[in-house]
Amino acid sequence: MVVDEFNATADCFLPLNLSCSKLYTSTVVYVLLYVAATAVILLTVGGNLLVIISVCHFRQLHTPTNILILSLALSDFLVGIFVMPVHLFILIEPCILFGSTFCSLYNTVVFHLTLVSIYNVALIAVDRYSALSMPFIYSKRVSVCLAFIFTAHIWILSLLYNCALLYFSNYFINKCPGRCLPYLDDTWSTIDLAVAFIVPCAIIVITYLKVFFIARRHAVAIRATFKDKKRMHDQNNSDSMKSERKAARVLGILVSVFLVCLIPFNICTFLIDELGKSFDYVMNSMLTLLFLNSTINPIIYALFYPWFQYSIKLILTRRICRVDSSLINVLSRGS
């Protein structure tokens, strides 16, 4: 999430009236914009809160993969709480100026949560690859505690990295008074591009290509198992493989949507000169797409995870308030 020094400095001298002239004058339009923004924020916060409650409450969902999903849902939830309201307000009210302290804190949160999300998705990809390529080793060595340790390290290291990145790049010096423009110099922008985009995206793409080929081999094995009519335990093994393939496919959709939302923003950072005065508008649009990924993720869970659909039903009907509700078999009832 980078804007170079030239653009950050040059954009400060754009006449403020130029952007203010684009404000909507119709009260109806203003109301519709605020209603839409509120709906997106509530959907983001509510959807991810349901994921968090489901995974935390039901013991059967305490699996390594779901801990990674929980971490991703938490970062998406915080995006809905702290990032989206400010971003959407800036889009609707471009003439509103914020102080340098507020902008520094806001962009620090944006940098941190975005990096956490990226590496959560990368870790999910690695988790699925490990489960499919080394099922016996995975089941014995990968535990909920280990998944929690990895996700905790992602959150801590991301915070330390972004604080160091913004401090040593002199980001906290007021480059553009009144405007919340992210700023990094050329050296640090290159480093951040590698750390926050190239490396995790390479991990995600390469890992899921391997997952795809493994899933194909498993599909052939499953067909051969049923064709030969082997013993029942072989059928149970094939069912387990089929379940792993289904989980990998759903998480593959999650990863694909994430990349679709992430890549356009990073491409725009290379088109600074070509975009010219429309750079701000295009970047804000790409940021909106990136943040909307936090809204889309719970929808993906609701569409493809029967256990999440059943968990929502239990939560909304307040059955989780009953004694021992955490022991409800949401996986079998939700399938």
Automatic annotation (TrEMBL):
PROSITE patterns: G_PROTEIN_RECEP_F1_1, G_PROTEIN_RECEP_F1_2. Its main location: membrane. One of its GO terms (cellular component) is plasma membrane. InterPro entries: GPCR_Rhodpsn, GPCR_Rhodpsn_7TM, TAAR. It comes from the Eukaryota. Residues 47-301 form the G-protein coupled receptors family 1 profile domain. It is a multi-pass membrane protein. PANTHER family: HISTAMINE RECEPTOR-RELATED G-PROTEIN COUPLED RECEPTOR, TRACE AMINE ASSOCIATED RECEPTOR 19P-RELATED. Belongs to the G-protein coupled receptor 1 family. This is G-protein coupled receptors family 1 profile domain-containing protein.
